[in-house]
Specification:
Number of strands: 9
Number of domains: 1
Largest sheet: 6 strands, mixed
Helix content: 40-55%
CATH superfamily: 2-enoyl-CoA Hydratase, Chain A, domain 1
Distance between the termini: 44 Å
CATH architecture: Alpha-Beta Complex
Strand order of the largest sheet: 1-2-3-4-6-9
CATH topology: 2-enoyl-CoA Hydratase, Chain A, domain 1
Number of helices: 11
Shape: globular
Structural class: alpha/beta
Length: 256
């Protein structure tokens, strides 16, 4: 995969197709700055006017999630706010969006993928919602996954923190298809070219019609974030798992 300067988000427009890609080596971990740049890129006029938008992380993988330190007070509010803005910008794009995924797709990275309309993955990609291991949970995932994947799949993903292979992710509907890694760019390029061959207004109205069949997740996201901020982060063990990860030790929970 190509690379870009660290901490950067780039946009390319070719024949009606917009490609938005980020780079923060080695694992494309999101911080407030990168999420802010991503939201800004997704709001650009040429991206909003494209027929189709491809989103991808460069380097070793899509994204391994958030900076762990950004979950801690006093940075957690800024992190949640920046992620909400990036998710909203992606969700509200009028054009169909395609996630092109390779390597690790974890935590907030997986939530960002789930906000896309279509997703194609390299067959060696891996997927996980591992926040439970750190004593926290992912608000957007809790609000949207039951609707998108079914409640049993949402419970299993979020309550076990299990890692899925690309084949398992495809079987569960997390991605549309897993393809050999060497074929992924060509597969997504062909798909985007096919979509670009259709009338833009039809694509946009079709997306609105399809989205109409599912409830808007943002009210549920706001509720999940209130639980996260006001109850979870107020508990005695709120930051123990996060600090244990940063300190490279096992957590010691005061609450069983």
């Amino acid at each position: 995969m190509p690379t870009r300067p660290p901490g950067e988000v780039q946009v390319a427009i070719v024949e009606g197709r917009a490609t938005v890609e980020w780079s923060r080596p080695p694992l494309n971990i999101f911080d407030v700055d990168l999420l802010t740049k991503l939201a800004t890129a997704l709001h650009r006029r040429e991206v909003r006017e494209a027929k189709v938008v491809i989103v991808r992380g460069l380097g070793k993988g899509w994204s391994a999630g958030f900076e762990i330190g950004d979950h801690l007070a006093p940075r957690v509010d800024a992190m949640l706010g920046a992620f909400d803005r990036a998710l909203h910008a992606l969700w509200e794009l009028p054009a169909p969006t395609i996630a092109e995924v390779h390597g690790r797709c974890l935590g907030g990275g997986l939530e960002l993928l789930m906000a896309c309309d279509l997703a194609y993955a390299a067959d060696d990609a891996t997927f996980s919602q591992p926040e439970v291991r750190l004593g926290v949970f992912a608000p957007f995932a809790a609000a949207y996954y039951p609707q998108a994947l079914g409640s049993r799949t949402a419970f299993e993903l979020m309550m076990t923190g299990a890692t899925l292979s690309a084949a398992q992710a495809a079987a569960l509907g997390v991605v549309n298809r897993a393809v050999p890694a060497v074929e992924l760019p060509a597969t997504v390029a062909l798909l985007s070219q096919t979509i670009c061959g259709y009338r833009r207004e039809t694509l946009r109205l079709m997306k609105r019609a399809i989205r109409r069949t599912t409830s808007d997740p943002w009210t549920h996201v706001a509720h999940a974030e209130r639980l996260y901020r006001e109850e979870l982060m107020a508990s005695p063990d709120a930051e123990e798992g996060l600090r244990a990860f940063l300190e490279k030790r096992s957590p010691v929970w005061r609450e069983a």
